[in-house]
Amino acid sequence: MNHLVFLAPNTQEPFTTSDVIATFAGIQHHTVTRLIQQHEADFKEFGILRFEIEEIKGRGQPAKHYQLNEEQATLLMTYLKNTAQVRAFKKELVRQFYAMRFELYKVQAAKMERRPVRVSMTDAIKALPDSPHKAMKYGQYTDLAYKLALGRTARQLRKDRGADKHAVASDYMTAEEISLVSDVENKIGVLIGIGMSYQEVKASLTRKIDS
Hints:
Layout: E1 16-17, H1 18-25, H2 29-38, H3 40-44, E2 50-54, E3 63-68, H4 70-78, H5 84-126, H6 136-150, H7 154-160, H8 175-193, H9 198-210
Antiparallel strand pairs: 1-3, 2-3
């Protein structure tokens, strides 16, 4: 299934783009952007009208690519001719906005459930004996949790998903991914608490994943 609706970062509401609407409604992108610009005040009644600028060398004025929330996308649909392709697109867009809203609820719940788990792990690290490298252990164990749960560190995940290097990695994760990381962090906290070293924790959890 084609992805028509997006949730990145997951701290914002779901959105679609003018490119997606043009492609799957079977119309020119400049037609979509012209409609949005003609009725800009109407779209702004339903939220901030977000856009990105694409620089196109040798082709005159840069193109705007709009991000539309559900209400804005629904409004735009009323301005399009009701061809068979447009009707089919409208139905799928409605389905995917509903599914993405549900995913957003799950993400918010997963983040809330993770919070005390994360605190428990960091408290376990804080309770370790002081050493010159103790401050590094927070990042070390965090990377271990991400690597074991998702196969990549938080830094790699941000890069893969086009996020800023200072962004919060979980803002670019699904509810399922957040839960997977939380489960590993819970295990790490327990193993640190019973006195295991980093290498022992890593070996123990790696064996469980591989078995």
